[in-house]
Amino acid sequence: MSRFQILCVTMHQKDFSKIKEMNICSDVIFANQADVTSYEETEFDGHHARMITTATRGVGVNRNLALTYADAEICLFADDDVCYIDDLEQKILLEFDAHPDADIIIFHLDTYDELRMQKKYPRTRRCHAWERMPWGGIRIAVRLNSIKKANVWFTTLFGGGCLFPSGEDSMWLREAKRKGLTFYVSKECIGKISFDTSSWFTGYDERFFFGKGAFYEAAHKRTVYVWMTYFWIRTIKSGSIKLSDRWKWMQHGRKAYRMMMSFNDYVETYLDNQG
Asked: Which range among 120-129, 157-166, 188-197 has the greatest average pLDDT?
């Protein structure tokens, strides 16, 4: 059993070139969405890489697939547009060794995108139960035995390639917190993320607010209006959609979640008929 693995979701890969592109210097598992089914392995610089290719769709499906194959003590979730620092493995293992009670540690990633800057922490510390969790999956490192014992998996309804466009990371974090796992945030930066392309974020448009409505209906049913109001206020200066329309699209998202309908299907079968 190795001490550390990267669990990377990717699409349409035909070789292991992502190892060099991402500056990976550790064991890695690629969960690759394509139009075929295959399994490949390779050795590089004393490390082991595996690629599990399936015709499935959905980031949650692929993260779960990588978790199924994972067998290291510490694992880091990854997307294929991250470029890591050279001593990534050492930095992450040192943080877990220094905090043996940590089940999950959130690391920092730099980005050039001013609209999607990541929250940075000045010191490594334990998170309180009441704190917000504004972290994407690519910042999350875990003790594999802890999350498997707690039976924490990613939703297959939310995220790129799924019925609803985003929110799988937040749902995973909420479930991990609900099951009592211990969170830390780390001062350490482990790489850079470009955000040049996204399978779900196309700006603060109708689809975006639709997806948020669906997410809040699923994740915060009892306090859905509190969260919708908070998000509505927080994004007042973002995008060009009228404020009243933003609220309407979040309400459409709530209804679509109850009906299990995607944005396109909902618009075609409900809103178009209304017009």
From this structure: 120-129
Q: Is residue 201 part of a domain?
A: no
Contact 102, 73 (CB under 8 A): no
pLDDT in tens, 89-112: 999 999 999 999 999 999 999 887
Q: Which of 80, 81, 92 is nearest to 26 (CA)?
A: 92
pLDDT digits (tens, 9 = 90+) for 174-233: 999 999 999 999 999 999 987 665 555 667 889 999 999 999 999 898 999 999 999 999
Q: In Å, what is the CA distance from 115 to each residue of 25, 75, 76, 194, 242? A: 30, 28, 24, 12, 20
Report the DSSP pairing between strands 183-193 and 125-126. antiparallel
Residue 222: is it exposed, middle or buried by C-beta count within 10 angstroms (0-12/13-18/19+)? exposed
Residue 122 · residue 63 · CB < 8 Å: no
Neighbours of 257 (CB within 10 A): 23
Domain edge (last residue) among 172, 193, 214: 193
CB 223 within 8 A of CB 186: no
CA 150, distance to chain mean position in Å, is 19
Contact 194, 234 (CB under 8 A): no
Q: Which residues pair with 125 in a beta bridge?
A: 185
Q: Which CATH number goes with the domain that contains 172? A: 3.90.550.10
For the chain, what percent of residues have pLDDT higher than 90? 72
Residue 114 has a pLDDT of 61
Which residues fall within 8 angstroms of residue 262, CB to CB, at 6 or more apart? 163, 164, 256
Backbone angles phi, psi at 40, to 5 degrees: -135, 155
End-to-end CA distance of the chain: 59
